[in-house]
Amino acid sequence: MAVERAQKHLQYLDAFLARGFKTLHYLDQLRAQLSESETTGLFGLGPEKSGKLLAACVAETSLLSALYWVICAGALLGRNLSSEDSESLSQVLHLVRSCRKGAGFAPHPSHEPDLLSTVSAVQLSVILKRPEILEDGTGATRKYILSLQLPDGSFTSRIGSAEEGDCRFTFAALCGLSLLREPGAKDGGELEEVRDPAMVAEWLLNCQNLDGGFGCRPKGECESHAGHTFCCLAGLSLLQMIPRMTHRSRQRLIRWLGSRQCEGGGINGRPGKKADACYTWWTLASAKLILSSEGSSPSATLADLFDLPALEKFLEECASPDGGVAPHPGDDPDPFHTFFGLSGWSLAAHAQADASTKGWLQDMHASLVLPVGLTGTV
Questions:
Q1: Angle, to 10 degrees, between the axis of helix 308-318 and the axis of helix 335-350?
Q2: Dist CA 353 CA 338 (whole Å)
Q3: Which pTM was predicted?
């Protein structure tokens, strides 16, 4: 049953990847047709083609990240794409390389480079065991990421964007830099190259709200959210500075995380919202990081905070019979929820000694968001 389940998800991912490359080719043809048309604007293509072009253009902004979700989900299910000699692998490598823009990577060959796409490229180079994706080595990519650090210690998304930090970009930068360590660097050591790591940690700590959760910016500017909470905790973990949290702050956070499970077993991202498969990862990974940090009760586990069998049942209801995971039971699956749903499912499974799902899902690294066996540096 477990093997069959894994195969269904892999088939879904393969089909999505094949459709994605077909769509990219189709988009190039539509653009060529549009540029040759005497009629200006999208309406020269007709309603059906213009609608497809608009949808594809919207998807371009997260194309490289979507590629990471699909490829990493496959690795989570035990696939070693790096050992294959396939058309899919060739297409993936070609697309990633074509997104290289100077020292960084763009989400699409026709876009400008940004932080999230650059980190996705680094993660893909680790999963595929292809450091040559980074062309001139890790130094230039590392320098690009560091160039996005702001005076207050946080990171922005791209050069020339609004000078405002965000915990999502700050975590992404720390994740990328951790994977780009120089050969021989101590695993888990401090990121000395980051300007004033203590200041970065303080910025992240200041994102915690009175309810215990974290927002995307400091001092209560944004409401608590499971995704932002994960980014702050994972960033602090990579800096080795979770112990800077006070005991009271830890306890408020643990209570906030534990209250995310809803009736029916699923987990939501903030109070009053319905359960969503992707929040399984953001919440459980956050809980794993805080529970395993110095100062937390050694007897506390994920099973103490959450009803994990009920959570797995919810995820089974979100999983399509044909593969893929949807945000809610009955919805259509998509790569984002498939990846984060399966990643959270992995944490739930590996937290239970007798979990039947443990065998078909690799264990996930709670701060690097990669299967544990793939967390070596580039």
A1: 150
A2: 24
A3: 0.89
d(CA 60, CA 367): 26
Cβ burial 61-92 (10 Å sphere, 16+ → b, else e): bbbbbbbbbbbbbbbbbebebeeeeeebbebb
Calpha distance 311→313 (Å, rounded): 5
In terms of Cα–Cα distance, which of 90, 80, 86 is closest to 10? 80
The set of residues, in sequence order, having a beta carbon less than 8 Å from that of 188 and lying 6+ positions away, is 240
**pLDDT tens-digit profile of 267-283?**
999 999 999 999 999 99
Could you give the CA distance from residue 98 to residue 249 in angstroms, rounded to a whole number?
45
- How would CATH label the architecture of 1-374? Alpha/alpha barrel (1.50)
3-state SS, residue 149: strand
Beta-carbon count within 10 A of 9 CB: 25
Sites in the chain below the pLDDT cut of 50:
38-43, 45, 47, 50-51, 53-54, 58, 186-189, 296
Cα 354 vs. chain centroid, distance in angstroms?
28
Query: Do 69 and 343 meet the contact criterion of CB atoms below 8 Å apart?
Result: no
Whole-angstrom distance, CA of residue 30 vs CA of residue 36: 10
Residue type, 30: L
Shortest CA distance to 232 belongs to which of 249, 112, 114? 249
Structure token pair of residue 66: 């979507």
